[in-house]
Amino acid sequence: MKMSIEERLLICLAKVYSSEEEKDTARRLLQENIDWVFFIRLTSRCGITPLIVKNILALGSDFVLPEYLLSVAETRSQEYTLDNMLLWNELLKIKKAAESDGIAIIPMKGIILTQLLYDNPSLRMTSDIDILARKESLPKLESALNNLGYRMDPLERAYREYHRKKYFHFTFEKNGLGGRKIILDLHWDIVWPSSGFSDFVTDFWERAAYQDIIGERILALSPEDALIESLIEIYKDFFHHKSFLLKRHIDVSQILRVYAGEMDWDYLVNKISKHGLKGLFYYALSLGGGESVVRLLPGDLAKKIKPGLLQRTLISKLSPKLYSNRPYVPPQVILFDNFFSEVILRGNILRYIKVSFFKLVILPNYAEFAAASSSWHCQFLFFIRQFKRGLLYLFCRKAE
């Protein structure tokens, strides 16, 4: 789909390392008439404002940025740094409490990737804490979290057993310093059981290893599994209509850059091919790293994991334009997003039909009520919500 100049500039600059060709493209785009207010909103939604401004300043002194853009970048940099410090300290408390009960946990996503992949932690936003635990240890770990002041989401607590069977994490919250709400996602898996992705977590635990990070001994995913987990996150972002989170694409590129010399490429190729992740991998690199990252792949590996010509063409031509912040996602956008993620990226038509039905008929939520444009629409959403609650009640009774 055709992108605006601001969106093209964002994708061009959304890299920790850029090639000379990419820098020249960015210079040309910067000479256009840029809507800086819109551009700031895009970078903020992606969680990479400091990185984008840093890359613009590195292009030379020919470009004079608006003062308010520099101010926003400085503010975001301070926010990201403080948030990362706060969440890291919370993670260490959780780790200590878990270890005292003999429970192993693996930090995942931004909380650990920020420390492993970025020289400057202010370049990437981390909004919450994600940890992986074995399913059998969840009751003890929940008790330990309660002792630290964390409380499970009330709805998830009410339908605990059903949620455990149908979902992949519980959400906990607590109030931190200054009333700042800290969110913790306690995972026993990385994606819904119905997603078609399987056996990842077993490999994650077998291949995880301890690393020394900022003076702490942390159990971390192998580089290959961290990359696979990042690809699954991009897939989940499509499900929630948040494919603008370019920080995940950058994570994939950074994993390849930092760990290129120690990757188990055979394992990675096998997993990507077995689970139909070629499209996701290609899509992630096309936005987060470009050709400069593809060159890091050894030998003929790029050919092995590159999707076919038709799939590559569809990915480049139909990449969704989803960088704006919308409380309500129209049905036609839901259908297109699902088509792109399920059919084009994964080649799974049956799942596209199932997911589209689920999201259009079963899933409407509170945000859609607030955005409903008419009274009949609001009444329709209310009916759907009540119908959904009735189904959930019946399913939970059956699960119990």
What does this structure look like?
This protein has 21 helices and 7 strands. The chain has 400 residues and is α+β, with helices and mostly antiparallel strands. The radius of gyration is 22 Å and the shape is globular. The longest helix is centred in the first third of the chain and has 34 residues, at 67-100. It has helices at 5-13, 20-30, 36-46, 49-57, 67-100, 110-117, 138-147, 154-158, 160-166, 200-207, 223-239, 246-259, 265-274, 278-288, 291-294, 301-305, 309-318, 331-344, 349-362, 366-371, 375-399; strands at residues 105-108, 129-133, 151-152, 169-175, 181-187, 209-213, 216-220.
What attributes characterize this protein structure?
five-stranded mixed beta sheet; 21 helices; alpha+beta; Beta Polymerase, domain 2; globular; 400 residues; single chain; 7 strands; 2 domains; two-stranded antiparallel sheet
**SSE pattern:** HHHHHEHEHEHHEEHEEHHHHHHHHHHH
From the 3D structure, determine the CATH topology of the largest domain: Beta Polymerase, domain 2
Q: Write down how many β-strands occur, each being a DSSP E stretch of 2 or more residues.
A: 7
Major β-sheet, in short? Answer: 5 strands, mixed
Major sheet strand order:
1-2-5-4-3
How does the helix and strand content classify structurally?
A: alpha+beta
